[in-house]
Amino acid sequence: MSTLKKQYHHGDLTKSLLESAALIIKEQGVESLSMRKLADVVGVSRTAPYHHFKDKNALLCALAEQGFYEQEKILNNLIAQKQSGEKSFTQYVHLYLGYAQQHSETYDLMYGRAIWKAGEPNDALKAVSKRTFKVWIEWVEVLQDQKVLTDTNTPLRIGQTTWASLHGLARLIIDGIYLEQSDLSEMIDQMVKNLCIDSSTCA
Amino acid sequence: MSTLKKQYHHGDLTKSLLESAALIIKEQGVESLSMRKLADVVGVSRTAPYHHFKDKNALLCALAEQGFYEQEKILNNLIAQKQSGEKSFTQYVHLYLGYAQQHSETYDLMYGRAIWKAGEPNDALKAVSKRTFKVWIEWVEVLQDQKVLTDTNTPLRIGQTTWASLHGLARLIIDGIYLEQSDLSEMIDQMVKNLCIDSSTCA
DNA sequence: CTCTTATCTTGACAGTGTCAAAATTTAAAT
DNA sequence: ATTTAAATTTTGACACTGTCAAGATAAGAG
After folding, report:
1. A142-151 residue pLDDT tens
2. Using the beta-carbon criterion (under 8 Å), do B166 and A168 form an inter-chain contact?
3. Identical fold at A10-53 and A61-195?
4. Domain residues of chain A, as ranges?
5. Which part of the chain is the HTH tetR-type domain (chains A, B) (predicted)?
6. H helices within A43-122, ranges in order?
7. Which residues touch strand C (CB under 7 A)?
8. Which site among A23, A120, B24, B54 is 20 to 30 Å from A155 CA-CA?
9. How far apart are CA B122 and CA B1, in angstroms?
10. Numbers of helices and strands, H then E, in chain A
11. What's the mean pLDDT in B28-32?
């Protein structure tokens, strides 16, 4: 309760664990994040983290959750600022792929098999991911009205496929299949053209 | 050398290891494939596999390699049978995603981070993946001539982005983000329309 | 039959996730 | 202020992982 919130035991272990874990995965990749090493970095015994996160999966879920908050913020910011639909969408594509590139490990947790297949997404994660997707779909509907995205199908379907395309590019970047920035930038431009109705105004 | 090829030690351990490993990842996922359990299944001691594969990464590379042979075969078959470009392409999309769905673990090895980022693709794997991609790009050029895919960019770029879109859908299926077959089938149809020039003839 | 080489096994080490029980520190109750 | 209850952390343990080094075994060559 004093100015330094560290009078008791560790202070806020939960927070420290998340921060250190985020740093570790960012710098060394998610496969070299171990509960024991994490505990050691934070300066606590091997099993201390287990009183703040049920297990490793729960920790990973929490990290992924933070990623969704970030992504939701990006989306809402773009939707809020009222510029032309084409510009907004093009910008979103770049922001989305930029995020995937710069926070590749978090992105992988958000959508990768570690949690969604090998592990088990917890309720909080399922909730925020669902909510973020909903924001996206609602924006797709607007973009359809603005003739930026095709309206030959429901917002849900167009949102699903459009996002799948972005996701595919993101994964190729993340998994290290395309690395040269020159290829990447041209691929992103072409992808925008693929996704927009009017490929001349987008890009 | 007799009818039962098992006179000496094991027979063909390399082959047995690959077969059993393929079975294990297919039925239980790649994360529950361990060198020790694999050795046990094949009926050999823990370290015997290490005389046939340098390490676990090498084993995974070999499994991925087989996947590429399969995929190359699919591609070549489709290219060989001369039917309309639209039909061929549509069929390819379905075959591609069908493969991803039915051999999801192998697909993950082929393009996933386990090998390409966390691990290290060996020379054989790099070679066959490159070759498969080349076959794809050459077919894209044909599809562009047939006005199935857009020719507003080079075969390489269009091939990259088109494949990225397919890959994205494949990953969503594999990582368990979309599971209901009803959604899936409609998403695939919509994706085909997105990728083709003439969305009315494709689908 | 001996020797070389290919193949496989045993032993060992460091690392992992996580459970159970004990210890400690803090906050609440009297 | 002293006792009590709760929150927090630690120690010990177990089963599992990948993989190295050294020894054992078996196959084929001479």
Report:
1. 999 999 999 9
2. yes
3. no
4. 10-53, 61-195
5. 11-71
6. 56-80, 85-102, 104-111, 113
7. A 1, 7-9, 33-37, 46-47, 50, 55-57; B 9-10, 13, 39, 44-48, 51-52
8. A120
9. 31
10. 9, 0
11. 96
**Nearest residue to B59 (alpha-carbon basis) of B152, B122, B148, B128:** B122
What's the average model confidence in pLDDT over B102-124? 95
Put simply, the chain B residues between 150 and 169 with a CB less than 8 A from any chain A CB are: 150, 152-153, 157-158, 160-169
Residue among A88, A191, A177 nearest B113 (CA):
A177
d(CA A140, CA A135): 9
Q: How far is B76 from chain A (nearest CA, A)?
A: 23
Give CA angle at A97 (A187, A58), nearest 5°.
140
Question: Do A103 and A43 form a contact (C-beta atoms < 8 A)?
Answer: no
pLDDT of A113 higher than 50: yes
Please state at what angle helix A181-195 crosses helix A155-174, rounded to 10 degrees.
Answer: 170
pLDDT digits (tens, 9 = 90+) for A153-183: 999 999 999 999 999 999 999 988 877 788 8
Q: Is A28 on the interface with B (CB under 8 A)?
A: no
Cβ contacts of B96 within 8 Å, gap of 6 or more? B71, B74, B166, B170
In chain A, which residues have their Cβ closer than 8 Å to the Cβ of B118?
A: 29, 31
Distance CA(B122)–CA(B118), nearest Å, equals 13
Top-tier CATH class for B63-195: mainly alpha
A85-102 and A155-174 helices, crossing angle to 10°: 40
Contact, A148 vs A85, CB < 8 A? yes
Q: What share of chain B is helix, strand, coil (3-state, %, to 5)?
A: 70, 0, 30
Q: A10-53: which CATH topology? A: Arc Repressor Mutant, subunit A (1.10.10)
Say which CATH superfamily domain A61-195 falls into: Tetracycline Repressor, domain 2 (1.10.357.10)
Q: A158 exposed, middle or buried (CB, 10 Å; 0-12, 13-18, 19+)?
A: buried
